[in-house]
Amino acid sequence: MVLLSSCQKESESFFLTEEEQTWLTEHEGQIRIGYTTDYPPVEFLISDEYIGISADYFKLLETKLDTRFEMVRFDQWSDLIEAARKKEVSGITAATKTPGRSTYLDFTVPYIMNPNVIITRKNFSEKLTFEKLSNTSMDILVIEEYSIVEYLEDNHPKLEFRTVPNTSDGLRLVSFGEADAIIVEVMSASAEIEKDKITNLMVNTEISYDSNLSIATRNDWPTLNAIINKGLAQITDTEKKDILNKWVPLQRKSIVENRFFWIGLGIILFGLSATIVMIMAWNRLLKKAVHEKTEELRYKSYHDDLTGLYNRAYYSEQLDYFEKMKVMPLSIVLADLNGLKITNDTLGHELGDQLLKKIAEVLKSSCGENDIVARIGGDEFVVLMPGGSDQMAQMLCNKIKISCNQATMDPIKLSVALGHSERVDMNQSLQSVFKKAEDQMYENKMFERERTHEDILGSLKATLSAANE
User: Fold this and answer.
1) What are the angstrom distances between the C-alpha of 56 and each of 23, 61, 215, 336?
2) Quick one: what percent of the chain has pLDDT higher than 90?
3) Out of 49, 78, 380, 414, which residue is the most buried by the measure of CB atoms under 10 Å away?
4) What's the rounded Cα separation, in Å, for the pair 136 and 68?
């Protein structure tokens, strides 16, 4: 019985063919696997010791296959790829399969799932896509010789980017404002951000391309690829989970899953619960107050106190952003309130303020959801229309005119001069579009000046006559 059980167990663990075992024996000491030294948490060095997810997988593979690999160090990924091309190494610990690499390498099934993301600074509000990046002058980074380079060249040839040697350098350039964004593997980016204590970066978008990692072997040794694939299949789900939990912090088992933790915590909380509750309540109130104050300051820094519209600072910031992103189509509408000075001089600033508030209401209600309405001067207003054509801008001007005529604004009739212009060329600056809209506005103001002047004087005479009765 014991002998039968032992033989059965040996048979179950015997997963390599006789040919594959012979191949391993004949190539003992010749299987050289290249690894990189700065790719955490996949693989890296601490005190010259090779560690990381791939390092642990290869230790298990050596046990499962009952063989030893010669692990060859490369400080630069580009050097390792070149060595693989020349077949100076037998394989690579972790690489993403691409059409270009498949001409000289075979790939096992992926053993590390590794999505790519676009990382920007936290103050960048626009959600980015490859299509948007293909139509912008933003400074985009990728890591040299990474699979994303080949993917972008094949699938998004219009997207311009520059390469950096490693993830750490790229993240620092974006953090310091020396580049706008980096397309990078989320696993290595997270590790570098944590290591370098970078606090001003964020994941802008998770993209559809994944750099899932396989073990790559020279394609003139197909037997080696088959052997390693079989070795990977022998690694249990528990062993895989243990490796992942060891190197990826978010996957680590929480201490709160340990029942002894709860027993100890219960004893401690018995005496400190009231204090903790008070501290938590105070912190909550403090955070709420800080948040409200921050939002209040942010609102005031971007809004006009009188009308509630956006102010010149916000308008300028958005104009710069649309300029940088080369947004097209984009139209600008300028509005100049008629009669504000004479109203202030004859009837007082209070009534003048009411005129400003009323025209702000008209502009806001007439514009679309994506339009940006701002007060940029005493009686000057501007509307930014991303995605708006010249025809749409003209329709908006007509709508504003009708709303002014229908507005109940006693005793002064609400009147505004309007001008608009559309960006028709990607190389056309938005300042020139603004100037064209401004020129048209002043032209319309001069054309309507006599009728506007008569309307305002009529309103003032009626008001003064009523006041003298």
Assistant:
1) 24, 9, 13, 70
2) 55
3) 414
4) 50
Yes or no: say if 384 and 312 are a contact pair by the CB < 8 Å rule: no
* Banded pLDDT at 284 (limits 50, 70, 90): confident
Nearest to 106 by CA among 126, 91, 118: 91
Give which of 401, 404, 414, 406 is closest to 444, Cα–Cα: 401
HSE at residue 370, side-chain half, CA atoms within 13 A, is 8
pLDDT band at 410 (very low <50, low <70, confident <90, very high): low
Global pTM exceeds 0.85: no
Most confident of 196-200, 273-277, 408-412: 196-200
The tokens for 393 are 């801008």
Nearest residue to 129 (alpha-carbon basis) of 143, 200, 120, 165? 120
Q: What is the C-alpha to C-alpha distance for residues 454 and 462, in angstroms, rounded to an integer?
A: 12
Cis-peptide into 411, omega within 30 deg: yes
CA 351 to chain centre: 46
